[in-house]
Design brief:
The chain has 222 residues and is mostly helical. It has one domain. Helix content is 77%, strand content 0%. The chain has helices at 7-78, 80-83, 103-106, 111-134, 140-168, 175-197, 206-220. The longest helix has 72 residues, at 7-78. The radius of gyration is 31 Å and the shape is elongated.
């Protein structure tokens, strides 16, 4: 049977083809854009992960230096009862410094972490200024106690930040960082016991005092 095509049927077929073609083209365009967004997200994630790794290294290097500086100070106090202030003469001045990541790295990091890194750097500088300003008030024994507190506080903080970044990267814990953190925790506990024995006379760095207060409040709230 012959099919008679009218003008209306031809127009309908053409319109249907146009609609179908537009739909197909629209779907293809959406799929391509979806792929582009996925690739862009993957690239951004890779850039952020590299930036996180770049931010991790200075924190772990800082913790390593702080732990290395703390050990001889602790040894000196162990011998203090024998030689008194003479035990401090061979100690090298502590020069804590944090190399914050360059702007190209910071721009790829989460804002929360960028703020934490800047705050870490500022707090370190403020503590150094405080110690310089109050140095004349203290004898050698107290000054080295304050220096030990500073090393412990910022060493712990560096380990905490480093562990947080490792968690964001889904990396396993570093055995080195674990060992440094255990050393800092043990030193903190010892300094805390010394303070509890004579809080009125025990010298405290402001940052260390704040850490003690925070711990006491946390314990009381349990």
């Amino acid at each position: 049977m012959a099919v008679e095509l009218t003008l209306g049927s031809v127009v309908g077929i053409v319109m249907s083809s146009t609609v179908l073609s537009a739909a197909v083209n629209g779907w293809v365009a959406w799929w391509l854009k979806r792929g582009d967004r996925k690739r862009e997200d993957q690239t951004a994630k890779q850039q952020q992960n590299r930036a996180l790794q770049d931010a991790l290294l200075p924190l772990e290097a800082f913790a390593k230096r702080a732990e290395a500086d703390l050990s001889p100070i602790e040894d000196a106090f162990l011998d203090y009862g024998i030689a008194e202030d003479a035990v401090f003469k061979d100690l090298k001045p502590v020069a804590l410094h944090f190399d914050i990541s360059p702007r190209s790295v910071l721009d790829a990091l989460p804002l929360r972490l960028v703020d934490q890194l800047h705050e870490f750097e500022r707090a370190l500088d403020v503590s150094a200024d405080w110690l310089d300003k109050h140095e004349v008030r203290f004898d050698a024994f107290d000054l080295w106690k304050l220096e030990a507190q500073r090393l412990v506080h910022f060493g712990l903080l560096a380990c905490e930040l480093a562990n947080g970044i490792r968690g964001d990267l889904e990396l396993r814990d570093s055995g080195y960082v674990i060992a440094w953190q255990r050393h800092f925790d043990a030193a903190f506990a010892k300094l805390e016991r010394e303070y509890d024995r004579d809080p009125a006379e025990y010298p405290l760095m402001p940052e260390f005092e704040a850490r003690l207060t925070s711990l006491a409040q946390s314990t009381a709230g349990r």
